[in-house]
Amino acid sequence: MQCPKCDSQYVVKNGHTHTGKQNFKCRDCGRQF
Length: 33
Prior knowledge:
Layout: E1 11-16, E2 22-26
Antiparallel strand pairs: 1-2
């Protein structure tokens, strides 16, 4: 898994979206996707 904004590998699971899809967060830039 890689951050689409900064290409960092430091990504963690961050719960789920309202549609039930897995949500991730980049620990370097803070972007959620």
